[in-house]
Amino acid sequence: VECSDESDSESAPQAQLKVPADVPKKRTSRRAVADPKTSADPPAEKTAPKRQTKAKRSVLAPRSTSSEEDEPLLLKPASSRRGRSRKRLSKTEESPDEPDTMRTIVEETNGVLDVSIEQLRTSDAEEDNNSAGSKDNIDFEVLRRDMCSGLEKDGLFEKWRNDHPTEDLLANISNTDRRPDNLSLEDVQSLLHSALLTLQHFPCPTIYPNLCTLLALTTGQSDPISTAMLQAQSLGVTSRHRTIRHFNCSRQKLKKASSDLAEKMDALTLNEPSGAMSSTSTQQRLVSEMEEIFSFPTADLCSFPQNPCQEFIQQIQQLPPGVTVCLMSVLAVKPGEMGDSIMLSRLEKDLSPITLHISTSRQELNIRWLVQEMDSILAEQKVVSCVAEKAKWWEARRALDCQVHQLLKAMERLLGCWKSLLLPLSLDPELSMQAKELCKALSKRGVTVSEEMLKVVLSASQSLSEKDLKGFGSGLSPNWDLACDHLFRAAVSQLSERNETRGHVVLILDKYLQRLPWENMSVLKSRSVSRMPSLHSLLGLSFQKEVDSQSILKHGVDPRKVFYVLDPDGNLPNAQDRFKEWFCSNPDWQGVCGVPPDSEQLEEAVASKDLYIYVGHGAGARFLDSQAVLKQQMRAASLLLGCSSAALAVRGNQEGQGIILNYLISGCPFILGNLWDVTDRDIDRFTKVLLESWLAAGSGASLMEFIDSSRQATRLKYLVGAAPIIYGLPVNLK
To answer: Residue 649 and residue 516: Cα distance in Å, rounded?
Structure first.
């Protein structure tokens, strides 16, 4: 049995780790599993000797990367427990106390996801022409390039300064005679508006979100629509850039194909219209509409924020019915710093936005501590994976499991009564009447609160503790007194016998909060919850559902149209014992077991099948890399059950990046993956229960209904059971 010493795709652990002295130095990772003869990336063979040394040293300083961007290390797997022979356990002899295998792997040698602004501007043709000359410097181009270095080197910057005196620059800046302590709120808003409008045509992912956040802080509850709009604009900027670029490339290809087809038709003498040309024209129109959904707003100083807010209200009306969208981000005044406050906005069709500013600085455990604790747990898991002694290995992992459980409780305490904003709204007709009467009664006592806010809290009152209910009044208004509390409790008691609401929740999280397993809080654990990188990606997926006549979101998943990739590296015998007979015995299913899949076959499968199941290391990016994903629209719902397959790596001030975003850009309607590293046998228990229960449920069954029960099938219900998360929208059986 081999244990991994590190993850290939964990997102941004900050602290370097020290390995205990008793860990053998020559132990290699489970990453080094690929055989050079079967490697999907031939250029990696030349670099294998250089990477061997780095693989051994990686224990001392684990890398923080996503499952998409590492380079494969073509080393021979070595046993992590010296002096003991390796013995394969049969199905009946499987020992529950044996350490599991970490499903980590190094994937994708050529994919660089955290592209710079300059690279986003570059066309495909320019990349092809310059790829040979710039290949060696791509890392410096992305990570270390100074925007002014070229000017200084060539003396152009000095020339520019001579041609543009400082006095001329200062003359064009308003309020230059004012010091920061003399600026009013209106002055600050004016300056922020000017800066935002200057960048809006091509927003920088490291600056634009900060400007939106600062502007949202200045508006607050005085203009909740503008505040929610600005928060929505601050999330998923990089993902929107890449999606726009993808659709632009697709439109250019369709335009070229249409032009070639028109030339061929001109050579014919038939006067009948061409169905192929009509189809191409329709595709061009749909791609242009999708590109418009992801475009950034353009407005001048006079029409801001009125015009963007009107567009935002229209976007809310385009949300799928029954879907609650929750935007969550950490507020910080200084760029690059993580603050202690959370901005939470709730969006739902036909309802006004609700926005909250939750300060956690005075709480026992603030949001910054929670994120750091999560990073610490995942970093410690890498150290524990090096432990060779079975009893100590299990003892340490059980301790980490308890830590994740305590972290989830702390996350729920942090939100308090405001976790009610994360829940779908009840359809009880009495709810609106009770909220309206309570709003009037509280207004007479000097407590100002929106009717929408009261509806949300009253709807979720069954999920709130007594402490949460008490905290609602004190957190809402300083004028809240005992009489207000009696009015509130009376309204709660009249709505206490409702059934649990059924609806779907979509979480849109910033680069800090996406590291935390929000779906596993007790208030959300039994709910249908997924994630999306931005509001615009959700709108795009919803639009795709409406216009695509073949979408599985509309017609459901056909359980006969399945393609599987089971243990392509041939080193997960437990997974083969558990799934091989089942998968291979189904006559309608197609796939491979124990061998790497053919790249062309896999690309065709995800574009034509209804369900894609990957059981192996990582996200399978060595067999279906980020560029292959974007070649054509992905039709299949994807289950990626390797280590950190849904993790987003954060580098510096950039937003999180991972291959999961490429799946969404390519139109994949549903992706299930792991937020961090998992072990093989425990995640296999989750997979087996999930697939068996869902596929046996019959027509119309939603996969989301079986997620919670599948988490309970794992031995470590938090360290492994909490790892699976979902991006996209719910899918049902056909």
So the answer is: 13
State the average pLDDT for the chain.
79
Q: Identify the band that residue 266 occupies on the pLDDT scale cut at 50, 70 and 90.
A: low
- Tell whether the model's pLDDT for residue 154 goes beyond 90: no
**pLDDT tens digits, one per residue of 386-435:** 998 999 999 999 999 999 999 999 999 999 999 999 999 888 888 889 89
C-alpha to C-alpha distance for 517 and 524, rounded to whole angstroms: 10
Burial 570-589 (b: 16+ CB within 10 A, else e): ebbbbbbbbbbeebeeeeeb
Q: What angle do CA 706, 709, 715 make, to 5 degrees?
A: 135
Structure-model confidence comparison of residues 29 and 398, the more confident one: 398
Place of tokens 């603030």: 366
Q: How many CB atoms lie within 10 A of CB 503?
A: 17
Using omega within 30 degrees of 0 as the cis cutoff, is the peptide bond preceding 305 cis?
A: yes
Per-residue pLDDT band for 376 (boundaries 50, 70, 90) equals very high
Band (691; pLDDT cuts 50, 70, 90): very high
What span, in angstroms and rounded, lies between the C-alpha atoms of 604 and 614?
A: 15
Q: Do residues 55 and 31 touch, judged by C-beta distance below 8 A?
A: yes
CA–CA separation, 186 and 191 (whole Å)? 9
Contacts of 589 (CB under 8 A, 6+ apart): 560, 562, 563, 564, 583
Phi-psi region of 285 (alpha: psi -120 to 50; beta: other; left: phi over 0): alpha
Measure the CA dihedral 394/400/403/404, to 10°: -110
- Give which of 493, 480, 494 is closest to 441, Cα–Cα: 480
In whole angstroms, what is the distance from residue 14 CA to residue 12 CA? 6
With H, G, I as helix, E, B as strand and everything else as coil, classify residue 479: coil
Active site residues: 643
Q: Which residue has the tokens 């999306």?
A: 532
SS3 at position 716: coil
Q: How many Å separate Cα 331 from the centre of its chain?
A: 19
- In the sheet that holds 611-615, the strands lie side by side as 354-359, 341-347, 323-331, 504-509, 528-531, 724-728, 670-674, 637-640, 611-615, 562-566, 590-593
Helix/strand/coil percentages in the chain, nearest 5: 50, 10, 45
Residue type, 497: E
Q: How far apart are CA 329 and CA 234, in angstroms?
A: 9
CA 8 distance to own-chain centroid: 17
With beta carbons less than 8 A apart as the criterion, state whether 591 and 566 touch: yes
Residues 291 and 244 sit within 8 Å (Cβ to Cβ): yes
Q: How far apart are CA 376 and CA 370, in angstroms?
A: 10
Q: How many CA atoms lie within 13 A of 6 on its CB side?
A: 30
Give the burial class of 410: count Cβ atoms within 10 A of its Cβ; 0-12 exposed, 13-18 middle, 19 or more buried.
middle
- Specify which residues 529 forms β-bridges with: 505
Which residues are paired to 354 by β-bridges? 346
Report yes or no: 317 and 542 within 8 Å, Cβ to Cβ: no
